[in-house]
Amino acid sequence: MSSTRADLKDRHILFIAYFYPPTDSTGVPGCMRTIKFVRNLANGRCHVLTTSPQTKSSPDALAHLHLPVNREQIHRVKSLDIFKFLLWARKRIRLLTSFSKRAEPTDKTVQSVLKTSNTNGEVASRSKVQKFKDFIYDACYFPDQAGPWIIPAVIKGIKVVKQHNIDAIFATGSPWSGLVAGYLISRLSSLPLIVDFRDPWMNNPFHQSKGRLLDDWSARLERRVVKHASAVSLNTDPLHAEFVHRYPDEPANKFFVMPNGFDSAEFQNIVAEPRVTVQDSLLLCHAGFLYGVRDPAVLLEAIRAANQQLADSGKRIVFRQIGDVNLGYDLKDRFSDLLEDGSLILDSARPYKECLSALASADIVVNVQPGTRTQIPSKLYDYLAINKPIINITSPDGALGTLVIDKKLGDLVSFEEKEQLTQLLKAYALDEKLGSFSGYENRDEFEISHITQTLARRLHECLDAP
């Protein structure tokens, strides 16, 4: 554990984090942000309000962690899923009414006519009914899939505040239900609140609309949460700039940046696993979900071209993907030649610590990120901790590209620059000094102990304010 842990000055902090271990692989980034903060705070007491364990159908991706990580007290509360109750009630009603329907005579001819009828009025009626059903579903899971957790979390949170003399609340999202729960607990308890945006709530490129009404409610809810909060944390500079612009009536110093960062303590005992390729190959590795716009096609096409050009050198480039793949095409079919000659290795999702060991055995680690304006993948900070060369496949105008250029955190190639990527891979494959890479100059800036100092300072400012 870091010797430079931030001083809480005997204060008690309630962290509201929907994701907290144990969890499946999708919950790892959310879990690790809170874990890193809790682990690096001292001279106070941390309480974590979270949901019940998220590993019923999959292994715990953070099984290597032993809770508590720093004497924190964990308070778990289950969701109150109204939609599931409605489904159960409907099923019961249908069972009860089915007995009376069996006793009624059935006119098969009329029934057949009704079923085959396809008038515009009937189609419109069905459409309205389906829209109503969709609205009920979306309302039950508002503002996101964690919506059913809000009410139980608020009830539990108020009890925790009273029983443990909580001084301040720190709520992190997504899911945004965590921020809503923090907002309500803060309103009911009059405690200062810091809300932490790990992603954009509004203007999120991966957002799926719930319809105009609920989308408007989400925008109003974000505004209400932000206006009430004592301070607002954003995890990237572009997201910070967006919030300052969106809320011009709020003091600019209300908003501050806390990147995800990396915790050196998490990497002290990471041992590189045995290489999956021969020593003369250049091994690239990516750990995480590849889907939709997070498409590795340009990398694989560049590897195919580079290997053809390197055929006489005895060198070969291999890309290892660890994690699920869900693209708009069949990756195995499109790149079957790379699979056959061993230039492409597809591994299933693995626990977080095993992924780190696999990444540590690679020569180069890879980011595949669409040019999102405000989002930076948390794996960038894991890559910095592992201290391997990084190839970032992203737009230079996006949040990741801007950070990479500004802080000199590896190579940057856009999705359209196949030839440039091919030449870069060839240069790395022929570089005899690659093994002597010593890290990026600005790496230590993202050590979580420094970032946690910022969190502690803002907590004390909120608590000491008149």
From TrEMBL:
Residues annotated as domain Glycosyltransferase subfamily 4-like N-terminal: 159-261
Superkingdom of origin organism: Bacteria
A GO term, aspect molecular function: glycosyltransferase activity
Alphabetized InterPro entries for the sequence: Glyco_trans_4-like_N
Keyword annotations of the record: Transferase
A Pfam family reported for this protein in Swiss-Prot or TrEMBL: Glyco_trans_4_4
The name this protein goes by in its record: TPR/glycosyl transferase domain protein
